[in-house]
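Data availability (excerpt). All sequences and predicted token strings are deposited with the supplementary files. A representative entry, Acyl-CoA dehydrogenase family protein, is shown inline so that the format can be inspected without opening the archive.
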Amino acid sequence: MDFAFSEEQEQLRGFAREFLADRYDDVRLAELADSETGVDAEVWPKLAELGWLDAELTFLDQAVLLEETGHRPLAAPYFSTTVLAAPALDDETAEQVADGRLTATLAWAEPGMRQGLLDPAGASVSDGRLTGQKVLVPDGAAVDLFVVTAADGLYAVNASDAVVTAHGGLDGTRRLASVRFEGAPARPLVTGEAAAALLGRIRDRAYAAVALEAVGVAQRALDLLVAYAKEREQFGKPIGVYQAVSHKASDVYVRLQEARSLAYWAAWCVAEDDPMARQACLAAKAHAGEAAVFACENAIQGHGGIGFTWEHVLHRYYKRAQWLAAFDGPARDQRAEVAAFLLD
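Structure token line:
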């Protein structure tokens, strides 16, 4: 079976890489990460103009964009809106997203409870009003709408009707927030068993998306390591000729190719609603998240003393890699589920 992207998708990749590279060079990325909000307030309408928010995009189209937003981190709630929230939105709300008028995220984790995407929620709705608290909400302080998990389904709540507390996070361009709902007006999106099934599909999409972003992060780390190994000289030779550096690059390359294969497999399974989607997404998220962390650590070490300074851009990618690896639980949790599929 041919897992290659189409010519149009590869063109989309080229346009996305050029756009992100022009907009987020190393200096600009650091400025945004260290800013008050961590968000590029002007980019969302531009994404709409580029068609990145269109509901007609297939998941394979989005896969190309997600990988590129890892290669050059996008300081906007793109992952939160298009991956976490979009599958639950109705047509009218999805149109607002596509027009660049609305951003959204999914709020599921609660204090004092298990915090997985598929774990039961304690928030409740009575007479159309939602009460409860959510924590670790991705981009929670940067969106207009929350898709909230409640005991009986998924509900849409305007951010203006919630009490949002922003938190500084590991990744300055993708921050978390705590959100409290005190009888907030809530519009039902999906309820009952259909909500549980939808959350399962959202988790699969999220795991595939995390893997794709992680591949982009790992590729960028490898690019920076190889470029430095070619230009930095020691004892009259580029440091890349020494095994201490070249072996790091080759080890990263191997991990990266494994992660890319798994991420593309997961993306294809999600796009085609393949029966193996759950296993593919679990495997991809587990391996790619760790591969991105591995790539950044080795790239930092390969840069020597300059790599260990906080000012070096590699640390921005390292933080994103750690965010991705930790999303919805560490890799050992996903491996345990894969093992259950094989052994139970």
